[in-house]
Input
Amino acid sequence: MPDKTSYYVLKEKAVPEVLLKVVEAKRLLESGKAISVQEATEAVGISRSSFYKYKDDIFLFHDNERGKPITMVIQLDDEPGLLSSVLQAIAKFKTNILTIHQSIPINGIATLTLSVDVFNTVNNVDDIVSTIEKVNGIHYVKIIAKE
Output
């Protein structure tokens, strides 16, 4: 019979120091601040064997950082830089863009489907839509899905 895997959520103060250092070493590797496991483990002060022993068993818990995905359709003029203006408007809200798909323009109008992670309140969604609608060249913004 296969072993059943159990998961636990712990406060940082309850996690052994070696495991916290494994997480930090993984972060150094993922960010490119360390180019090898040897360099990362030396930087955080653990052995490579400790890193390899635990690297697949510990991850940061980001649930409180994850937002609610929304998908919207935006109809806009086919003008150079307009997509960039829309993305800049969205960036003001510190949202994470998940997907972008822009159709081939027909008669000078393109359709943009955009999915973003919204981190704060529902009012934030209304503010985002309102800000996008104010960009010159936008015909309409419609939310088609929310989690």
Summary: The helical segments are 17-31, 37-44, 48-54, 82-91, 122-133. The chain has two domains: 12-54, 65-146. The chain is about 35% helix and 25% strand. The CA atoms of residues 36 and 58 lie 19 Å apart.
